């Protein structure tokens, strides 16, 4: 049987209303896959996680693992590992006791517990930390203990609820690589909740972008970044230029805006909402003479040099366009510039 | 089955706790409050209420209740403020010791304060003996307005010191410096900056002290010395126990309860103000000054000598007098362990020894029973409030805190009424006394238990469930070890309240169910001071040990 494409977790028409918002989500995750739930705070990503873990009951819908409906099981019967945002390590127990808590509940033999805990400790690089008190650990160390505790019982699914949000930027980068390494090593299906788009892009096989209780788009990181099919996810991931459209010619894939005509790669079908032209700043080129169409003429109103890149703000017909170039300082404020936006990178959403 | 249990609303879990408080508090209380607005025939009528309000005697009583409380509060604050300033600004050797001394009044049951005052300020008391030696005339302090005020100040100025200094030490120095740099002088800085900053603490401590004095009982009853100086609280007691006019007592209780609940409400609105203020403050500053050889330091030392005398002398008198025995009625006395032998040696026990020993055993038994009633209820309610979805969590909390706003005399009265309806064997029975103690201590037990539950993060519980622990297992393995200190603090509060409680007990107890405070009160009444002191010393020792234990667990749980 092909394990790679077997559906592991599925959320079917999960529906839950709160006072101020409604969660309404469908999701299918494959065996061994690591996916991120990405969205602004309050979008429902943590609630989705808590529904899977069993801490919240959905009003409607089912949660299944390996085709088995687990919706009616209490949290303690689900065999799902979870790392909490605040780690939730038991402060009155040592590192060893924390990790051994799950195995003890499962009545593993003493020998098996000792072996597994020590094995887990070496996987998370905390070999000699067993007897330490939780309060004597740094944030990063606590995070690893939480991960080890969640993984030791070999759950069918690992849930990570913003596990790195309490750490500083450098440590976050280091630990997210480690989480990914361990996840690949153990081949465990994983759902990772974050509001950090860079983290989601770096760590996930697929990303589910969420907003206002719904899953907006669920796709590969590179597809979401380069070829988003929704305005919200286009805006939420990375920097973007979003320009209102005056007129659309669907047949010729051409649109008209206040800064000119553009040939585009994709036009999203919409009933009556407004459409917008989308392209990324790093896809702007300097216009050469032979280009015609997809050109923006304007004046540089701001520029910023960040070492590897130079970003400029170009004013054109009252709009500000952001562009990013590899070259160092080539312009100064007030210069005229023509930008070329290749059609294959322009999308109407 | 599992699913349905998991979906059960929090309210369902609370049913036993609601039933408990309903039976031991709300039903008996409403019994007398309703009686307060009925006439002889049980019909609705305000005649008793109007009768009280229009009677000059009760008007005078109500007026006196207010005025003694206000005067006591003002003096407590005036004496407390310098102490608060010193404690928050100075560091000196022995500061810890003085802090400990200042907590003594917190832990003394009121009957011991009364006993200490009678002995220290009384006709043959230490103070007058000392004055006589120095050639001055006797001070006639006891059984007067002054005695009440001094006793209330003794009891309450440490509260003012504690509350005000804890805020004062947190005022950022930068604000004072900013004011000075803008050209404000010392007085102006105090008037325009410091005073505004400490005002919330002055208001809160005033309100607490006022409420305590308003509801004060033993001090007024004994040190007031008669109907001339009687408060509403004492009057309710007299109507119930002396004149046996339960109807009028109920009406007066209704008036009193409305007032105390109103004060509690005012106090809780101040609390919000206080917490808002505290957000603007930093953590405690280091004490900046130390004592030197100057006038200021001299005044500080004088202040502390005065404070120590006021605080230490009365309880110390109790201890000293407990080791005395007099041969004749004329009053000559000598050192003796007679009273302790009487109490603890079963072979040489006379009437005193029997009664004293019995009340000691009763007191300990009631105190432990009070723990056994209050701790499970507080734990259950706190667990549900912090872990389950409730429709009205704040109201639920209030339901279990409300007994704090009802005086223990009124509770005693309501239990008296209730016992009229019960079989004879219930009257004055231990169970009534224990339940009364449970009601009185419940808010004090519930608070620390609830606050420790709030400190235990919900994610810990969820993590344990997630790892496969059942709900019960999670409670035993994870939550119980973490709330242990709160439970112990609560248990000690229950113990201490029960063992020192006199007001409700006095109204309920019969010869078989007397407690230490009751026996001490009776002994004072029959002028057997040495015997009272021996029991008082034992009671004081028990309270001291109990509160040292609280200090160890969570530093008074403020």
Number of helices of chain B: 25
Strand content of chain A: 25-35%
Largest interface: A-B, 30 and 22 residues
Shape of chain B: globular
Radius of gyration of chain A (CA) equals 24 Å
The CATH topology of the largest domain in chain B is given as MetI-like fold
The assigned CATH architecture of the largest domain in chain B is: Orthogonal Bundle
The end-to-end span of chain B amounts to 42 Å
Helix content bin of chain B? over 70%
CATH architecture assignment name of the largest domain in chain A: 3-Layer(aba) Sandwich
Q: Please give the share of residues in helix of chain A.
A: 10-25%
- Write down the secondary-structure element order of chain B: HHHHEHHHHHHHHHHEHEEHHHHHHHHHH
| Rg calculated over all Cα atoms of chain B | 25 Å
Total number of domains of chain A: 2
CATH superfamily membership of the largest domain in chain A, which one?
Answer: P-loop containing nucleotide triphosphate hydrolases
Shape of chain A: elongated
The CATH class of the largest domain in chain B, by name, is Mainly Alpha
Order of helices and strands of chain A: EEEHEEEHHHEHEHEEHHEEEEEEEEEEEE
Low-confidence regions of chain B: none
How many DSSP E strands of chain B? 4
CATH fold naming of the largest domain in chain A = Rossmann fold
Verbal overview:
The complex is a heterodimer of chains A (349) and B (558). Chain A is of the alpha+beta class. Chain A folds into two domains: 7-231, P-loop containing nucleotide triphosphate hydrolases (Rossmann fold, 3-Layer(aba) Sandwich), CATH 3.40.50.300; 239-348, OB fold (Dihydrolipoamide Acetyltransferase, E2P), CATH 2.40.50.140. Chain A contains eight helices and 22 strands. Chain A has helices spanning 45-53, 95-105, 110-123, 139-151, 169-186, 197-203, 221-226, 231-236; strands spanning 7-17, 22-30, 34-38, 60-65, 68-69, 80-83, 157-161, 190-194, 206-211, 214-219, 241-244, 247-249, 254-257, 260-263, 266-267, 276-279, 285-286, 295-305, 310-316, 319-325, 336-340, 347-348. Chain A has a six-stranded mixed β-sheet, sandwiched between helices. A five-stranded antiparallel β-sheet of chain A has the order 17-21-18-19-20, with no helix packed on it. Chain A has a four-stranded antiparallel β-sheet with strand order 2-1-4-5, with helices on one face. In chain A, strand 18 and strand 19 form a beta hairpin. In chain A, helix 2 (95-105) packs across helix 3 (110-123), helix 2 (95-105) packs parallel to helix 4 (139-151) and helix 3 (110-123) packs across helix 4 (139-151). The longest helix of chain A has 18 residues, at 169-186. The two termini of chain A are 39 Å apart. The mean pLDDT of chain A is 90. Chain B is an all-alpha fold. Chain B has two domains: 1-36 and 362-558, MetI-like (MetI-like fold, Orthogonal Bundle); 38-229 and 263-314, Orthogonal Bundle (MetI-like fold). Chain B has helices spanning 2-7, 10-36, 47-54, 56-89, 95-102, 104-107, 110-121, 126-133, 145-168, 173-181, 186-214, 218-223, 232-241, 246-278, 295-322, 338-344, 351-387, 393-401, 408-421, 430-455, 458-466, 471-500, 503-508, 516-525, 529-554; strands at 90-91, 289-290, 324-326, 333-335. In chain B, the strands form two sheets. Chain B has a two-stranded parallel ribbon with strand order 1-2. A two-stranded antiparallel ribbon of chain B has the order 3-4. In chain B, strand 3 (324-326) and strand 4 (333-335) form a beta hairpin. The mean pLDDT of chain B is 87. Classes of the chains: A alpha+beta (349), B mainly alpha (558). The A-B interface holds A 53-55, 57, 72-82, 84-86, 88-92, 101-102, 105-106, 149-150, 153 and B 2-3, 6-7, 457, 459-460, 462-471, 473, 477-478, 481-482.
């Amino acid at each position: 049987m092909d394990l790679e494409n077997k559906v592991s977790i599925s959320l079917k028409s999960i529906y839950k209303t709160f006072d101020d918002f409604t969660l309404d989500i469908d999701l299918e995750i494959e065996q061994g896959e690591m996916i991120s739930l990405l969205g602004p705070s309050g979008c429902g990503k943590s609630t989705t996680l808590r529904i899977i873990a069993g801490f919240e009951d959905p009003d409607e819908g089912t949660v299944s693992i390996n085709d088995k409906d687990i919706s009616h099981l209490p949290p303690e019967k689900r065999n799902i590992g979870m790392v909490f945002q605040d780690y939730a390590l038991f402060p009155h127990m040592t590192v060893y006791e924390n990790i051994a808590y799950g195995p003890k509940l499962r009545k593993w033999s003493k020998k098996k517990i000792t072996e597994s805990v020590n094995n887990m400790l070496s996987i998370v690089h905390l070999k000699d930390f067993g007897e330490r008190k939780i309060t004597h650990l740094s944030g990063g160390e606590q995070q690893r203990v939480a991960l080890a505790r969640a993984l030791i019982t070999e759950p069918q699914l690992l849930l990570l609820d913003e596990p790195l949000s309490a750490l500083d930027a450098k440590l976050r980068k280091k630990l997210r690589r480690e989480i990914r390494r361990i996840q690949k090593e153990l081949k465990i299906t994983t759902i990772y909740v974050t509001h950090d788009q860079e983290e989601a892009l770096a760590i996930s096989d697929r990303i589910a972008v969420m907003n206002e209780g719904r899953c907006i788009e669920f796709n590969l990181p590179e597809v979401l970044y380069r070829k988003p099919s929704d305005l919200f996810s286009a805006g939420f991931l990375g920097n973007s230029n979003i320009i209102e459209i005056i007129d659309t010619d669907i047949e010729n894939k051409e649109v008209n805006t206040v800064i000119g005509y553009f040939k585009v790669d994709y036009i999203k079908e919409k009933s009556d909402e407004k459409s917008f032209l989308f392209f990324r700043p790093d896809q702007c080129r300097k216009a050469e003479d032979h280009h015609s169409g997809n050109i923006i003429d304007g004046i540089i109103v701001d520029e910023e040099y960040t070492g590897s890149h130079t970003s400029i703000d170009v004013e054109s017909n009252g709009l500000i366009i952001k562009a990013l170039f590899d070259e160092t300082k080539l312009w100064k404020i007030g210069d005229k510039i023509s930008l070329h936006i290749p059609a294959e990178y322009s999308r109407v959403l | 089955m599992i699913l349905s249990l998991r979906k059960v609303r929090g309210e369902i879990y609370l049913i036993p706790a609601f039933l408990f408080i309903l039976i031991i508090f709300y039903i008996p209380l409403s019994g007398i409050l309703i009686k307060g607005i009925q006439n002889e025939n049980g019909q609705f009528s305000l005649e008793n209420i109007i009768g009280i309000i229009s009677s000059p005697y009760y008007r005078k009583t109500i007026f006196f209740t207010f005025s003694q409380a206000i005067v006591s509060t003002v003096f407590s604050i005036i004496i407390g403020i310098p102490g608060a300033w010193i404690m928050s600004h100075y560091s000196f050797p022995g500061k810890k010791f003085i802090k400990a001394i200042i907590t003594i009044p917190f832990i003394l049951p009121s009957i011991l304060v009364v006993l200490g005052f009678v002995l220290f300020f009384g006709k043959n008391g230490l103070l007058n003996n000392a004055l006589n030696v120095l050639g001055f005339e006797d001070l006639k302090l006891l059984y007067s307005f002054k005695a009440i005020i001094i006793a209330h100040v003794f009891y309450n100025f440490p509260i003012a010191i504690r509350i005000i200094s804890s805020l004062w030490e947190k005022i950022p120095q930068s604000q004072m410096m900013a004011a000075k740099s803008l050209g404000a002088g010392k007085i102006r800085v105090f008037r325009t900056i410091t005073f505004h900053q400490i005002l919330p603490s002055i208001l809160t401590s005033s309100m607490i002290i006022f409420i305590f004095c308003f509801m004060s009982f033993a001090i007024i009853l004994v040190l007031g010395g008669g109907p001339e100086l009687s408060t509403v609280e004492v009057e309710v007691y007299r109507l119930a126990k002396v004149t046996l006019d339960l109807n009028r007592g109920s009406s007066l209780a209704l008036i009193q309860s409305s007032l105390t609940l109103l004060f509690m409400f005012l106090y809780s609105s101040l609390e919000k103000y206080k917490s808002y203020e505290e957000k603007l403050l930093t953590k405690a500053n280091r004490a900046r000054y130390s004592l030197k050889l100057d006038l200021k330091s001299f005044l500080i030392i004088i202040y502390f000598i005065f404070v120590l005398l006021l605080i230490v002398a009365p309880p110390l008198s109790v201890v000293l007098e407990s080791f005395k025995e007099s041969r004749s009625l004329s009053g000559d006395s000598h050192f003796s362990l007679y009273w302790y032998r009487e109490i603890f040696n079963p072979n040489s026990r006379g009437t005193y020894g029997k009664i004293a020993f019995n009340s000691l055993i009763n007191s300990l038994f009631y105190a432990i029973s009070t723990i056994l009633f209050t701790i499970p209820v507080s734990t259950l309610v706190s667990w549900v409030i912090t872990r389950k979805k409730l429709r009205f969590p704040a109201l639920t909390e209030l339901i279990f805190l409300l007994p704090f706003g009802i005086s223990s005399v009124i509770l005693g009265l309501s239990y008296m009424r209730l016992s009229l309806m019960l079989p004879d064997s219930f009257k004055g029975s231990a169970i009534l006394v224990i339940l009364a103690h449970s009601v009185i201590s419940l808010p004090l037990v519930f608070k620390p238990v609830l606050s420790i539950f709030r400190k235990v993060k919900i994610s810990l519980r969820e993590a344990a469930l997630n790892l496969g622990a059942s709900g019960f297992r999670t409670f035993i393995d994870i939550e119980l070890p973490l709330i242990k200190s709160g439970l112990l603090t609560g248990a000690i509060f229950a113990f201490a309240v029960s063992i020192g409680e006199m007001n409700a007990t006095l109204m309920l107890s019969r010869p078989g169910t007397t407690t230490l405070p009751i026996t001490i009160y009776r002994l004072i009444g029959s002028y057997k001071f040495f015997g009272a002191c021996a029991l008082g010393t034992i009671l004081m020792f028990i309270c001291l040990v109990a509160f040292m234990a609280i200090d160890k667990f969570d530093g008074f749980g403020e």
